[in-house]
Structure formats: C-alpha cells, structure tokens
Amino acid sequence: MKLDATTPIDETTLAKLKSLYPKGKEKIKSVKGLNYAYNLTHLYLPNQEITDISPLSNLYQLDFLALDGNQIRNACPIANLPYLRQLLISNNQIEDIGCFSRLTTLTDLLISKNKIQSIAPLAKLNIGWLDISNNPITDLSSTKSMNYLSHLFVDQTALNENSVALLQQLDRSGVGVNRASAASSTNSGIAVLIDTERVWFDHAASLEAGTTLVQFRPLFEKLGFTIQWDDATRTIQAEKQGTRITLQVDSPNGSLNGQPYELTVAPKIIEGSVFVPIRFVGEASNYVVTWESKNKTINLVPERAIESPDHKIKLTLNGKWLRKIAQASTDYQIYTENGNNAIFTTAEPKDYLVKKDIKTLQDYTTAIYKMIDDQKASGLSETKIPPINGMEARRMSYSIKGTNGINYAVIQTFIEGKHDFFRVILTGVDLTNSEAAKDYEKSLRTFKEVTTLAEQSQAKFGALKPVDRMLEAARYYRNFGFFEKDRALSSQDFDNKFLAQYNKLTTWNPFDSSKYYDPYAELYLLEQDLDHVWFEDLELVVARGKNVYVDTLQAWSWISRGAFRPTAITETWESDKGPVTITFNLNGQKKVIHPQYYGDYLDVNILKEINEMIKGTGYQFVAVQVDQEIFISVLKAEEKLKLQQERYLDFVDF
C-alpha cells in the first residue's frame, strides 16, 4: 500500500498497512499511533530518532522489524511479538536483552553497536544469524546450545580465554564466524546435526574422494557409543546396544556387528585426530544420513515418533524427513521437509469451532474446501477414506500455484479426534507414486491423538470419593516436601486438619467430580503452604504508583527456597501505560527487567528472565495457570518432572 500526501492517516488507513517504510529527510521521533497498524508484517524504521517503542508492542503480525540507528534503551516492548523472525536493532543504546528469551520465533538478530554484556537469554532460541559485534561481551558459552546457528559476528577483543577457543570450535563445527558466506576453501562450513542437536568438533570435517570424514570421538560419543582405542593397531572399537563397529586407520576393511564391511574411504589421522566416514557410522547406527547443500549441513536422523509442540498428537516419520521451524505466522505444529516435499500438521479445538457452527468432520472439511476453492486451486477433490486408528477421516487433493510461480500438489487428510479436528498435509511438486507419498501414507498409519494431562489425571484420581481424593493429595504433597510447618503433626492430626478444612467446602468442592472433574483441585490445597506457594489472581490492579511488581518479587523471594533473594527493588513507570522498568540487586549484581503493560494484569513472563538469573542454584520457578489465576512454586528439575509424571500438572512453558 502506497501513501501520498493526500491520503488521510487514520485508524482505518493504518489497519490496512502490511508494510511500512518511511520516506523523506525529516527524522521520526515517535511511533505513537502505529499501534493501530496491527496488520503490519514488515516495518522499516532505521536511522531515525526513536527512543520509545512501546506503541509497537501489540503489532502481533510483525515478521520483520528494522530499528537500527535509533536511540532505543529499552527493547522489551517488542519481546512478546509472537511471529517476529528478523530483528535489526543495531546501533542503539541497549544494555540488557533478558526479555529477548521470549522471542521464541526469532531466526535473525542483528544487535551490534549496543552496550550488551550478556547473550545468555538467547541460549534457547532458534537463531541462525547473530550479529553481536561492537558490544562488551566476554562470554560466548550460550552459543553452544544454539543448534541452528549458522553465522556469528563478534569482536574477539573482550572475549575471555574460553570464548576465544570456542570461536575456533564453532568455526570447525559449521558456524560461519565473522564471514557472510558459509562457503569456504576448507570444510569449516560443514555442520553435523544428530536429530537437530549439533555435534561439536575440535577439527573441521575433511572431504576425501566425495566422502565426508569427521573427528571420530565427538561423533561416536554423541551417538551414545562406548569407545575403545587400541594405539598399537590404531583400531577403534565402538559399541552400544544392538551395534558394534570396528574400524582401523588407513584400512578400508571394517566390521559391523561382527560381519566384514568394506568402506569406500578408510579412516585417517588428520592433525593428530582420527577421522571416520560419517555416512557409514550414521547408517550403521540406524540413522538416515542426508546432506543439505543450502546450509552445508549433514543430518543424522532415525525413524522416530514426533510429538507436536502442543502435545496433542504423535506421528512417526523416517529419518529422511527433517524437522524444520515452520513460518511463525502459520498454525503448523509438526513441520518436516524432505527435499522439495513437506509434511506438516494442524490442530483446531472443537469447542472453538462449534461456535462457528462446525460440529462434524464433514462441516470442517467443507469449510476448508471453501477456503481452498477461494484460492483458485485446481483439480480439487474430496473423498472419504477408512478410519485412521479408529478416528473418522476424509481426504482432499488439489494443486495450487505458489508465490514462486511453481505449481504444488497438495494432499490433506482430515481426522476427527476427541478434542480437536486435525489435518496432516503433504505438499510437493509431483506426488504421483512418489516416495514422499508412500512415506506420507505410512506415517498416517501411526497417527495418534495424545491423551491430555487432564484425562490422565481423571483416569488416576477420578474414581476416588471426594474426601479420599483430598486426603490422598494432602498426604502426597506432605511426603513430597510441602507443608513443612505441619511436620510435627502426627499422621492423624495432619489428616484431621485437612478434613476440618474440607468440611467447610459447602458451596464449592473442587474434589467432587460427579458433575465436572477439576484436574487442578489439589492446587487449592497447596495454596495454604505460603512458604512454598504463591497462588493469585493475575488481575492485581497493576498500575503506576502501586508497586505491585515490588511486592510480587518480594513474595516470590519468600517462596524461592533461597534461590532468588533480590534487594533494593525499584519499580519505575515512564507513563501510566508504561514502559515499566524493574531494577534490583541479586548476588551483588544489578539486574533489570521490563514487564509488559497488560492493564491491571501482572506480566508473569518475567519469570523466564528470573529463571535464567537463578539457573546456577539448581532451582527454577514453575507455574500452572488456571483460568485467570496462577500457581507458582520453586522446584528442582527432577521435582518438576516427578509432579508432571505423577500428578499430571500442566506447567507453563516459560
């Protein structure tokens, strides 16, 4: 959409914008009003004089955002944008990026020429391109968990000794360090991923007669082998359950599970390390080995059952199908690629669709059919197919022209689950009698709707009488470590205490499942343990001058088991609607977090940043949200896992 001097700039006009790039010499100082451009996907505002970006916080469709060359100190207003993939915010005045841990869709981050000292908040993101040059960063250890990192730009002058050494390992393991192209005269651009996890090498891969050889020890250890090296014969013995490999340096004669095996290229010693042919080792370990030329990556992937991120389905696919990050603006759950083909899934809750008068699988298929037909698909056909693992199913096939002008064949299979309508979709240029189509049909036979945590809880506890369910939960959590103030009570006195409280549940009893099973009933017991639990309504009347965040952090400190002890907490608001800045001291260091403004509601997403600050203690804040209320406690990783497995608590994924 192009705007000229005669176009009125009102809310209606702003709502129509998809992209915006300002022209003219006059510098922009404020982005106030852009909050109405809520359909923007691309926003370019480089080299302006912007200081406050809080009006951009609700531009939830943004995919690309350029804010480089401004005067921004607080970048946290954009930290909750759910589809943001590319962020250019270099040459500003940003010191802290703790809130960036929330940008889970981010793939490209250019944040050079700022005042950032730590990139730890980026450790769990799927970033591929990262420019942190011209920042006072000393530690790069967080990059070791960035499995998708392909390019890194960083200054070495401030780096500590370990990080300087790590740069060399990154370069040898497929990360282009301080170079725009991954291509190289050596093989330093080759990355090796085992089921999406990167293998870190001390030496770059070597190419011999068309065969890639890699350092043997990191590869075998990542694959779970026990290794024995015989220095006299220069022989490797590697073994794990079901697989035994013998290889000898400079000999093409190896063995697999006791049977002779002739290698195309013999293992070699290069720069003092033994290198082995990766394809042989991968395939001998029952992994499919594939090469991606566009990003110079060797993938080793087994046949595996993939669970969707929303934990609703499982689907088994062979190792040719590589898990990829779906475009953030889509609703795809599982997303895989095999060359030019893709298999992906969606799920739509029935209780939501029924409001649109979509009650049956036929209703759902008809709605999708109309949507596809409106996109001018050709050859559109719909058929009923046999049930898939007891679930009613239908199928739709058609072809459609992509944005690149290529015609793609599409097969969609619709499945009615207990709670959702699912789609499993295959796309490709030519699917007729293809291997991709065969893989698709095979995977459909493995389709499984995952039992929800609430259903598992009901199966285990739903048959108990209400009073028995209450007592069982109270006793369990006492043994777990809650209710420490009651540890002097005898078992009978402890039961009597909770029975007395239970008898007061006259108007509402969460343990009574005669009409409705409440999977969170036991949380209402735990809220009595004020030393370990914070259970509040999120509508806390958060406002300027109320110091709600100060009080909340003090309350969280009380239940933190010593892991989180902030002092000198301050809460500053620049206006009645933010931005909000919280500062405090923790273990002798000043910390800054920037909660989002949600009206009267508390931003509990700051717990993700706090968890990063306290990860060295072995404890983490955990939360379960029940409608508008939230239950918060502090647990070790093994304690959290135990409650997930034994009590089926649906913890918030911070």
From TrEMBL:
Keyword list, A-Z: Leucine-rich repeat, Repeat
Organism, scientific name: Paenibacillus roseopurpureus
Keyword Transcription in annotation: no
PANTHER family xref list: LEUCINE-RICH REPEAT AND IQ DOMAIN-CONTAINING PROTEIN 1-RELATED, LEUCINE-RICH REPEAT-CONTAINING PROTEIN 9
Tree of life domain: Bacteria
Keyword Repeat (UniProt): yes
Transmembrane segments: none
Name of this protein: Stalk domain-containing protein
Copper amine oxidase-like N-terminal domain location: 194-299
